[in-house]
Amino acid sequence: MNLFLRAKHWQLFLLTFGIPILLDIVMMAGVFLNLMRHPNVPPDPHVFFYFFKLFPFIMLLCMGTLLGWEYAVAIGLQKLVPTGIKMKVTKFKTFFFFPVTYMSLIIILIFICLTVNFSHTDAADFGPLFFIPFLIIIPIHLFSMFCLFYCLYFIAKTLKTVELQREASFSDFVGEFFLTWFFPIGVWILQPRINKMIKEYENKDENSNQD
Fold first, then answer.
1. How many domains, in total, are found in the chain?
2. Which of 54-58, 66-70, 90-94, 202-206 comes out lowest in average pLDDT?
3. How far is Cα 209 from Cα 211, in angstroms, rounded to an integer?
């Protein structure tokens, strides 16, 4: 957990967004190079499928880093929350792990779809059963979105409560809420503040142990 709290902003950005962007650049560069070498030959779709097979692993790395950071901030900063302020940690954990489980199942489903050949099957072959998964997924997906927004709310409130050393209201941490939501931008602002909090806490704890 401390690994995420001590990590630098550029490291988190690289793991969550830098690698997918780099993969897109490599994929497009490969396509363009192939077109330049063989201008009269249509693009080979297998090139795209090759990169798509890496998508579940890249998504797992990115989402694992992002979710790991969110959990570390929400739970790891609880030791810095002023005494007497009770944060709804159990509620956060419940709302956190529900979408994590849901997204894990989605990643597994995507991997199966990319590895199994469905070229000889048709949706009509499944009949009404084809639409049943969609009827189940839609409400679960909507509830997962609600859980994710609550987690952003909890993370921003925890962060600002530690900074102010009092229970923060939404008007106090509305900025942190949107910075957490738009993580590619927010990480450059929030993570240095988190690094400073952890460093001050560790220095204070070290000084108290020496005394």
1. 1
2. 54-58
3. 5
